[in-house]
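Sync notes, pocket subgroup
Present: LS, DG
LS reminded everyone that the earlier model was apo-only. Rerun requested with adenosine-5-diphosphoribose included. Inputs:
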Amino acid sequence: MFESFENEIKNAKKIVFVTGAGISQESGIPTFRGKDGHWRKHDPMKLATIDAFYNNPKLVWEWYEERRKNMLVAKPNLGHKAIVELENHTNVVVLTQNIDGLHQKAGSTNVLELHGSMIRMKCTACDFHGEITSDFEKLPPLCKCGKILRPDVVWFGEPLPQDVWHDSIFHASSCDVMIIAGTSLVVSPANTLPIYAKQNNALLIEINPESTIMSFDMDLSLQTTSANALPHLISIFKK
Ligand code: APR
């Protein structure tokens, strides 16, 4: 699968992964825009914007709570696990758009969550931030200050956490190989990360059963699933 770039991969001092919902699809978590994707069933403007939240916070919380419970029982797949094993061979950083925590659950030690996390919440008024450790008795949940709590995720039209974005640009701009797995690359600014890597002459590899808007810009585009392709990466280092 990766034969044509074995040396570049084997000699890479830093490999950066940019991942999206597709890498968790084989763990039973739906994507957004694929078949049965969330945005095929729901209007994102009714569930994933700050206006939608203030318009109906209970509806938005119900949807995130349903997803949180699914994500909590989901298990990392061979794709997540291969990325962990790669840490034994080189410096690995994961820049993920996923809020499911499966990279961390698999054991990845260097994960930047570009779009937040489903296990975190924050207050809409005070600077309270916290972890969701149990189900809520009542939705929407209230902060100690009396105001509504919201999921600590990035909604459409909202900026990414600046420290996370700043560090992501640093890693994208200083990697030797970037592997883009399971993302349609339609959402910005995450979809600019391959451009930073390209500017650093990094090798760009895409893993996706479908072609994306950047497939032609890739050095290698593997039209298969991440759980199928990523374990083959490890075999390169074992030769
Ligand atoms: N392995 C690899 N790729 C897969 C797999 C798989 N098993 N299954 C599906 N894919 C691919 C699909 O072909 C699609 O291109 O994963 C991609 C998923 O794309 P999206 O559903 O658009 O998800 P993502 O790119 O993560 O969305 C970005 O959009 O809705 C917002 O905030 C949300 O983080 C999300 C962002």
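DG: Residues 7 and 128 are 48 Å apart (CA to CA).
LS: The beta strands are 14-19, 91-96, 111-113, 116-123, 129-131, 149-153, 177-181, 203-207, 220-222.
Action: DG to write up.
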